[in-house]
């Protein structure tokens, strides 16, 4: 799994965050997605990478500005993870 952090300009409130979360769910196969207008980013957990071009297209279709995307491996953390 992979964690993709997308920097986005133009989100101003909680409704903007909700709109961006819905956009990611409708356009990509995401395991989890959360947005923060304060940080100006959306973080998505995915099984397969999403190319920057597709991220940019989805973000800019909604009226926001795509700035960048960073990727890093994601390991699920849970209560039992520490007992492995």
From TrEMBL:
SUPFAM superfamilies: HMA, heavy metal-associated domain. This is Cation transporter. Gene3D superfamilies: 3.30.70.100. It comes from Hominimerdicola aceti. InterPro entries: HMA_dom, HMA_dom_sf. GO terms for molecular function: metal ion binding.
């Amino acid at each position: 799994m992979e964690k993709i952090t997308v920097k986005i300009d133009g989100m101003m409130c909680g409704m903007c965050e909700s709109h961006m979360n819905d956009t990611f769910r409708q356009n990509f196969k995401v395991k989890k997605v959360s947005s923060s207008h304060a940080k100006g980013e959306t973080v998505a957990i995915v099984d397969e990478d999403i190319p920057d071009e597709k991220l940019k297209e989805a973000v800019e279709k909604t009226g926001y500005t795509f700035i960048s995307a960073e990727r890093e491996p994601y390991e699920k953390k849970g209560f039992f993870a520490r007992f492995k």
